[in-house]
Amino acid sequence: MVNVLNLRQILVLVFILLAVPLLSGADESAPPFRTAGDLDSDGQTEEYLLVNHVLTVKEGTQELWKSPPAYHVDCFALGDIDNNGKSDLVVSLWKEGSFGEIRPFWHSGEDNSYKNHLFVYALRENTFTSVWCSSDLDRPILSLSVWDADGNGLNELVVEEGRYRKVAGERYAPDPDGSMRTAVWQWEEWGFCLNEPL
Ligand SMILES: [Ca+2]
Ligand SMILES: [Ca+2]
Ligand SMILES: [Ca+2]
Prior knowledge:
By secondary structure, the protein is mainly beta. Helix content is 12%, strand content 46%. The chain is globular, with a radius of gyration of 22 Å.
Protein backbone atom coordinates (compact mmCIF):
# COMPACT_ATOMS: atom_id res chain seq x y z
CA MET A 1 0.00 0.00 0.00
CA VAL A 2 2.79 2.33 0.94
CA ASN A 3 4.54 1.58 -2.32
CA VAL A 4 1.32 2.30 -4.34
CA LEU A 5 0.87 5.66 -2.62
CA ASN A 6 4.47 6.54 -3.25
CA LEU A 7 4.04 5.67 -6.91
CA ARG A 8 0.95 7.88 -7.12
CA GLN A 9 2.80 10.69 -5.42
CA ILE A 10 5.66 10.30 -7.84
CA LEU A 11 3.27 10.34 -10.81
CA VAL A 12 1.56 13.49 -9.48
CA LEU A 13 4.93 15.12 -8.96
CA VAL A 14 6.07 14.20 -12.46
CA PHE A 15 2.79 15.59 -13.88
CA ILE A 16 3.26 18.88 -12.01
CA LEU A 17 6.90 19.18 -13.10
CA LEU A 18 5.89 18.61 -16.73
CA ALA A 19 2.65 20.60 -16.75
CA VAL A 20 3.76 23.79 -14.99
CA PRO A 21 6.46 24.75 -17.52
CA LEU A 22 4.09 23.86 -20.39
CA LEU A 23 1.22 25.93 -18.97
CA SER A 24 3.40 28.89 -18.06
CA GLY A 25 4.97 28.66 -21.51
CA ALA A 26 1.60 29.47 -23.07
CA ASP A 27 2.13 33.14 -22.23
CA GLU A 28 5.66 33.31 -23.56
CA SER A 29 4.52 34.36 -27.03
CA ALA A 30 3.94 37.85 -25.63
CA PRO A 31 6.06 38.33 -22.51
CA PRO A 32 5.53 41.63 -20.67
CA PHE A 33 8.10 44.22 -21.61
CA ARG A 34 8.96 47.09 -19.31
CA THR A 35 11.32 50.02 -19.66
CA ALA A 36 11.73 53.53 -18.30
CA GLY A 37 12.52 56.97 -19.66
CA ASP A 38 11.97 60.67 -19.07
CA LEU A 39 10.62 61.82 -22.43
CA ASP A 40 9.25 65.15 -21.16
CA SER A 41 12.49 65.93 -19.27
CA ASP A 42 10.63 66.89 -16.09
CA GLY A 43 12.98 64.88 -13.88
CA GLN A 44 10.29 62.24 -13.22
CA THR A 45 10.81 58.88 -14.88
CA GLU A 46 7.92 57.36 -16.81
CA GLU A 47 7.36 53.62 -16.83
CA TYR A 48 6.50 51.99 -20.19
CA LEU A 49 4.80 48.63 -19.78
CA LEU A 50 3.64 46.37 -22.62
CA VAL A 51 1.29 43.59 -21.48
CA ASN A 52 -0.91 41.54 -23.81
CA HIS A 53 -0.29 44.02 -26.65
CA VAL A 54 -1.51 46.99 -24.59
CA LEU A 55 1.06 49.71 -23.87
CA THR A 56 0.61 51.74 -20.68
CA VAL A 57 2.72 54.74 -19.65
CA LYS A 58 2.76 55.89 -16.04
CA GLU A 59 4.62 58.69 -14.30
CA GLY A 60 4.55 57.89 -10.59
CA THR A 61 0.98 56.84 -9.88
CA GLN A 62 -0.46 58.87 -12.76
CA GLU A 63 -1.37 57.03 -15.96
CA LEU A 64 -0.31 59.29 -18.82
CA TRP A 65 -1.35 57.13 -21.75
CA LYS A 66 -2.77 53.78 -22.70
CA SER A 67 -2.82 52.48 -26.27
CA PRO A 68 -6.38 52.52 -27.71
CA PRO A 69 -8.30 49.20 -27.72
CA ALA A 70 -8.19 49.12 -31.53
CA TYR A 71 -4.37 48.98 -31.42
CA HIS A 72 -2.55 45.67 -31.05
CA VAL A 73 0.93 46.82 -29.98
CA ASP A 74 3.74 44.43 -30.92
CA CYS A 75 6.83 46.28 -29.78
CA PHE A 76 8.12 49.77 -29.01
CA ALA A 77 11.33 51.69 -28.37
CA LEU A 78 12.37 54.96 -26.77
CA GLY A 79 14.86 57.17 -28.60
CA ASP A 80 15.35 60.48 -30.32
CA ILE A 81 14.29 59.28 -33.77
CA ASP A 82 13.81 62.75 -35.31
CA ASN A 83 17.08 64.00 -33.80
CA ASN A 84 15.60 67.11 -32.18
CA GLY A 85 17.31 66.45 -28.85
CA LYS A 86 14.23 64.89 -27.19
CA SER A 87 13.47 61.19 -26.94
CA ASP A 88 10.37 59.86 -28.67
CA LEU A 89 8.13 56.84 -28.28
CA VAL A 90 8.24 54.64 -31.39
CA VAL A 91 5.47 52.02 -31.56
CA SER A 92 4.86 49.11 -33.94
CA LEU A 93 1.16 48.23 -33.87
CA TRP A 94 -1.48 46.37 -35.83
CA LYS A 95 -4.84 47.90 -36.55
CA GLU A 96 -7.57 48.02 -39.14
CA GLY A 97 -7.50 50.79 -41.74
CA SER A 98 -4.85 53.32 -42.66
CA PHE A 99 -6.58 56.63 -42.24
CA GLY A 100 -8.96 56.55 -39.28
CA GLU A 101 -11.20 59.61 -39.25
CA ILE A 102 -8.86 61.66 -41.42
CA ARG A 103 -9.04 60.11 -44.87
CA PRO A 104 -7.41 61.87 -47.84
CA PHE A 105 -10.06 63.07 -50.27
CA TRP A 106 -8.39 61.18 -53.12
CA HIS A 107 -8.81 57.84 -51.32
CA SER A 108 -12.37 56.61 -51.73
CA GLY A 109 -11.85 52.83 -51.65
CA GLU A 110 -12.14 50.40 -48.81
CA ASP A 111 -9.91 51.08 -45.81
CA ASN A 112 -10.34 47.92 -43.80
CA SER A 113 -7.08 45.98 -44.14
CA TYR A 114 -5.64 44.82 -40.83
CA LYS A 115 -1.88 45.36 -41.12
CA ASN A 116 1.19 46.71 -39.35
CA HIS A 117 1.79 50.44 -38.72
CA LEU A 118 4.55 52.53 -37.18
CA PHE A 119 3.57 55.45 -34.97
CA VAL A 120 5.89 58.01 -33.35
CA TYR A 121 4.79 60.00 -30.29
CA ALA A 122 6.33 62.84 -28.32
CA LEU A 123 5.54 63.55 -24.66
CA ARG A 124 5.03 67.18 -23.67
CA GLU A 125 3.47 68.33 -20.40
CA ASN A 126 2.12 64.86 -19.60
CA THR A 127 0.39 64.52 -22.98
CA PHE A 128 1.43 62.24 -25.83
CA THR A 129 1.01 63.78 -29.26
CA SER A 130 1.54 61.89 -32.50
CA VAL A 131 4.58 63.05 -34.47
CA TRP A 132 4.10 60.62 -37.35
CA CYS A 133 1.66 57.81 -38.19
CA SER A 134 2.31 55.46 -41.07
CA SER A 135 -0.35 53.93 -43.26
CA ASP A 136 -0.09 50.17 -43.91
CA LEU A 137 3.57 49.19 -43.96
CA ASP A 138 4.73 47.24 -47.01
CA ARG A 139 6.41 44.69 -44.75
CA PRO A 140 5.55 43.99 -41.09
CA ILE A 141 8.03 45.01 -38.40
CA LEU A 142 9.23 42.10 -36.25
CA SER A 143 11.50 44.16 -33.97
CA LEU A 144 12.85 47.71 -33.83
CA SER A 145 15.52 49.80 -32.14
CA VAL A 146 16.68 53.43 -32.26
CA TRP A 147 20.41 54.11 -32.48
CA ASP A 148 23.12 55.63 -34.62
CA ALA A 149 23.59 52.70 -36.97
CA ASP A 150 25.99 54.42 -39.40
CA GLY A 151 27.93 56.45 -36.84
CA ASN A 152 27.14 59.86 -38.35
CA GLY A 153 25.93 61.32 -35.05
CA LEU A 154 22.21 61.01 -35.93
CA ASN A 155 19.88 58.23 -34.85
CA GLU A 156 18.20 55.87 -37.26
CA LEU A 157 15.39 53.38 -36.81
CA VAL A 158 16.68 49.85 -37.35
CA VAL A 159 13.94 47.30 -37.99
CA GLU A 160 13.71 43.60 -38.66
CA GLU A 161 11.07 43.24 -41.36
CA GLY A 162 9.16 40.11 -42.30
CA ARG A 163 6.42 39.30 -44.76
CA TYR A 164 2.65 39.35 -44.49
CA ARG A 165 0.49 36.27 -44.54
CA LYS A 166 -3.22 36.62 -45.27
CA VAL A 167 -5.27 35.20 -42.39
CA ALA A 168 -8.78 35.88 -43.70
CA GLY A 169 -10.33 38.54 -45.89
CA GLU A 170 -8.22 41.68 -45.46
CA ARG A 171 -6.72 40.50 -42.18
CA TYR A 172 -2.96 39.88 -42.20
CA ALA A 173 -0.34 38.57 -39.76
CA PRO A 174 3.44 38.06 -39.93
CA ASP A 175 4.35 35.06 -42.06
CA PRO A 176 6.49 32.72 -39.90
CA ASP A 177 7.98 31.28 -43.10
CA GLY A 178 8.46 34.64 -44.83
CA SER A 179 11.86 36.10 -45.63
CA MET A 180 13.36 38.57 -43.15
CA ARG A 181 15.64 41.52 -43.66
CA THR A 182 17.16 44.30 -41.57
CA ALA A 183 16.33 47.79 -42.79
CA VAL A 184 17.46 51.25 -41.68
CA TRP A 185 14.90 54.06 -41.71
CA GLN A 186 16.28 57.58 -41.70
CA TRP A 187 14.13 60.42 -40.38
CA GLU A 188 13.69 63.23 -42.86
CA GLU A 189 11.89 66.49 -42.26
CA TRP A 190 8.35 65.10 -42.57
CA GLY A 191 8.80 61.41 -41.92
CA PHE A 192 10.92 58.38 -42.64
CA CYS A 193 12.67 57.32 -45.78
CA LEU A 194 14.04 53.84 -46.19
CA ASN A 195 17.79 53.55 -46.48
CA GLU A 196 19.14 50.50 -48.23
CA PRO A 197 18.46 47.26 -46.32
CA LEU A 198 21.56 46.13 -44.41
CA1 LIG B 1 8.95 62.55 -17.10
CA1 LIG C 1 12.80 63.58 -30.85
CA1 LIG D 1 23.19 57.77 -37.95
